[in-house]
Amino acid sequence: MELRQIEYFIAVAEELHFGRAAKRLQMTQPPLSQQILQLEKELGVMLFERSKRHVELTNAGKVFLQESLHALTQLEQAKAAAQRAQMGMLGRLVLGFVGSATFDILPNLVRAFQDQYPYVDLVLHEMPTPMQIEAFRRKDIDIGFVRTPVVDRLLSLLSVHQETCIAVVPKLHPLAQRSSVSMGDLSAERFILVEREVWPSWYDDIVTKCREAGFSPIIRQNVKEIQTVVGLVAAGLGISIVPSSTANLHARDVAYVNIEGNAPRVDMSIAWRTDNNSPIVKQFLETAVRLTGCDFTQNS
Fold first, then answer.
1. Total-model pTM
2. For a FRET experiment, which of 2, 11, 125, 247 has its CA 20 to 30 Å from that of 213?
């Protein structure tokens, strides 16, 4: 059975006249009649009751017409879906992201992408940068929001956000009343930091900046998430240094204070496998470029 036979059958079933159906199909009547006879033979049923003056669908023909129309509709939908997928407008995109990306760049970018490509199924997994690199190697994720620097020949990077760090202190801490502090002002404080294996470059930068200010930080607690850092600071267990976007996390009982001079910095990049030619990945990256103003010359 061929698609054209189905189309011929539908034309005859709707016209109930072989001559009009042939004209509609821009063909002559004899080959149309032969195609319908062949279709009936393949199906093993009579689709039409025929006479010299009358053509009528049989019960089998009525059922076959309903199913044929449904099949053509499904086929058109499949065709449209394939075309949308080719253009990166349909499919599945798996994103990895560090938790701090939710304070700034991630929500805006995901919203913009979903508005433009509503038929793409976005699946998000929160994981630190080192875990994302492993997930890329296993091809478990397509896009990653990572903290740089990241050195991996497998990956390309687009830098999308840079920010300085600020101090977060308990609300009743003496430093909470200051408009800014120096790194040296933190020398006697106990630090709560995101552990090094989660964010090695940032951890090392904080420790380096402390030493440049003349002290080694007293580390009271290492945790896995920035939200946990802020929560423990709110509990009065210590102070911390966090990305400035963390101030968007309106936690009670803490104050955010600017750091003077050479404060630690953090960078956010979008990562993807260099060999991933998915049109959906391309569309996501183009959305990121449009939203952030960055460009692909920043790839590594």
1. 0.65
2. 247
